[in-house]
Each structure stands twice: as structure tokens, then as C-alpha cells.
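seq:
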Amino acid sequence: MSDFFTIYVDRLKNGHTDRFSSSVSADFLDCNDRDLQFTSPVDCSGEAYIASDHLVVHISAATVIGIPCSICNKTVLVPIAMKNFYMTKPLQECSSTYNFQNALREELLLEVPPFSECAGGCKNRKFVEKFMKKEDPPGGDTPHFPFASLDDPKDLGDNYGRT
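struct:
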């Protein structure tokens, strides 16, 4: 599998372009998090070429991940896609080969959304709405005081909340 990610720099001299396209196992992402599951293959395509004194790798990749719903914690399948990602590497830093596996891994992990919700909206949202702050009407700058209903300690006298 790692051979797919290897670019043979010597073959790109004299204006040649290396085009690649494949569906690879998500194992290369090495993600062992129970809350982030890469179970679908990663569809990856792109090209590599030399521009001036740099190796240029242009990649598009897509896959489907499983992450927990922010409301009910059930696993939600979310498609992620990385389109037109370019990376460059000075030729003097490249040996005869360049492996873009780690760079692709990092970019795909950056595309993972911080949270998600069940398709069409989580049905359990109605149970947590009472804990969420209500939006102020437009134009209203009413401050939010979450503990306003608590007794003022000054009104408790010398006991100051002690029993």
C-alpha cells in the first residue's frame, strides 16, 4: 500500500507528469480513536510534477468517517473531502523518491469536523434544548446572568450559607 504514496522524482524530469488514482485502505491514517472511525477506503487522485526547483504534488481525496453525534452520541457517518490540495517540496530536500502518505494523513485529519449531528437533525435535541441559551431578539443587548435566580449571600446574614 505504501508504494501508492511513493513518487519517483527522477521519472518527473524533462517535464513528465505522474498521474495517480486509487482507492486505498484507511489503515494508513493510523487512527485508533474510538470516537473517530475511518472504515471506508480513501479515494485519492492527483498528479506530481516538477516546477522549477520544486516537486509539486496536487491531490484530491475523499472518504467517509464515523463520529459520534453531539447530542445522542450515536455514530454518524460523515463524508469528508479534500479537493485541490497542493504540496511542494524543494528538490534538494527530496531523494530519488518522495512519499506523501504523512502529508495526506495530516490534511485528511484536518478536514474532520469538530462535531456532527444525526442526519436531518438529532431527534434527541428536544431533550437538551431546555439547557441551551435562548437567543436574544434582534437588537436586544440583554446580558445573560445564569445564576440570577440564586439567593444573594448578603441576604443570608451571618450564616452566609452555612447550616
